[in-house]
Design goal:
Layout: E1 3-9, H1 13-24, E2 28-35, H2 42-55, E3 63-65, H3 104-114, E4 120-124, H4 129-137, E5 145-151, H5 167-171, H6 173-180, E6 186-189, H7 191-194, E7 198-200, H8 201-205, H9 211-223, E8 230-232, H10 236-243, E9 248-257, E10 268-270, E11 275-283, H11 285-293
Parallel strand pairs: 1-2, 1-4, 2-3, 4-5, 5-6, 6-11
Antiparallel strand pairs: 7-8, 9-10, 9-11
Helix pairs in contact: 1-2, 1-9, 1-10, 3-4, 4-6
Bound molecules: alpha-D-ribofuranose and calcium ion.
């Protein structure tokens, strides 16, 4: 039985790998890619999502444009350093096979309303603005979501946005607070885990010689371009948790989000008054990378 998922994403090199894995591993029924501004602007993330579906010949899967401004705050200056001005550090994709749809939150709500309760999971790979809009504007579907698995936050690791905040949550702290505080089942995959699942040159070279394996190799080579020995596979960890949670050490924690205005806005706060959520804090890196490889065969 394939896992029915909506992937909310800001591709982005690691998002692209996660999407290629989800499409290539044969274990997900991807209902749609909903896009968000994050690693790069909304037009680019939407075009990149369409290009990834085109590479895989999946014109049947819709791309649905989301929002390009945070729930309440001003849009942050987009930091294109890691992913480059096109979001994929120059990796070329084909033109999308179809024009994107609009109104990602409304589209997600309709999919959830029409599906059996609990049968669709949301895999969130970027800032949580779209998902927060679903929960606030369509509260009637909140309890129809199977699970929201989110790449974001950090518990013990230093941040990659503020000193203690992670990019996806720092991009829209209010949205992260709405999602974590919602009635939906939420699992968070923080930097504590994603920084342990790393691609190195030998892993990249050993990827299968298939069309999407070659594209994955191109994306990872671009991701390693700045001379680092390895790069963290943040977003693919969401798909790996969805497929095989036994790869991870998952703990229950009561969490909240720092909604202040300092550089740590969006920081995860361990707070006994917070919402009880599952948090992945450990990972069997070798098994995780082996499972990831199967998505490119
Ligand atoms: O902090 C890592 C997250 O921010 C990943 O989702 C990456 O794609 C960027 O969006
Ligand atoms: Ca992302």
């Amino acid at each position: 039985m394939k896992k029915r998922v909506i992937i909310d994403t800001d591709p982005g090199l690691d998002d692209a790998l996660a999407i290629l894995f989800a499409l290539g591993c044969g274990k997900f029924d991807v209902l749609g890619l909903t896009t968000i501004a994050g690693n790069i602007g909304l037009e680019r993330t939407t075009a990149n999502a369409g290009g990834l579906l085109a590479v895989m010949g999946r014109g049947d899967i819709p791309v649905v444009r989301g929002t390009d401004i945070p729930l309440t705050r001003e849009l942050q200056d987009l930091v294109a350093i890691v992913h480059g001005a096109d979001g994929l550090k120059g990796v070329m994709l084909p033109e999308p096979l179809a024009a994107p749809l609009d109104d990602a939150p409304g589209w997600i709500a309709r999919v959830l309303a029409e599906a059996d309760p609990g049968s669709v999971d949301i895999l969130a790979l970027g800032p949580l603005t779209n998902v927060a809009h679903v929960l606030t504007e369509h509260p009637e579907v909140a309890d129809r979501i199977g699970e929201i698995i989110v790449m974001g936050g950090t518990i013990h690791e230093p941040g990659n946005s503020g000193p203690n905040s992670e990019f996806n949550f720092a991009s829209d702290p209010e949205a992260a607070s709405v999602v974590i505080g919602s009635s939906a089942k939420v699992t968070i995959i923080p930097l504590d885990v994603t920084r342990k699942v790393r691609a190195q040159a030998d892993y990249v070279e050993a990827l299968p010689d298939t069309p999407h394996g070659r594209l994955a190799r191109e994306l990872l080579t671009a991701y390693l371009q700045d001379g680092r020995q390895s790069r963290p596979l943040h977003d693919p960890c969401v798909m790996l948790v969805a497929l095989d949670p036994s790869l991870f050490k998952i703990e229950n924690m009561k969490l909240d989000i720092d909604l202040g205005d300092d550089p740590d806005a969006g920081r995860l706060l361990v707070d006994r008054r917070g919402k009880l959520v599952d948090v992945a804090l450990g990972v069997d890196t070798e098994r995780a990378l082996a499972l990831l490889r199967t998505g490119f065969e």
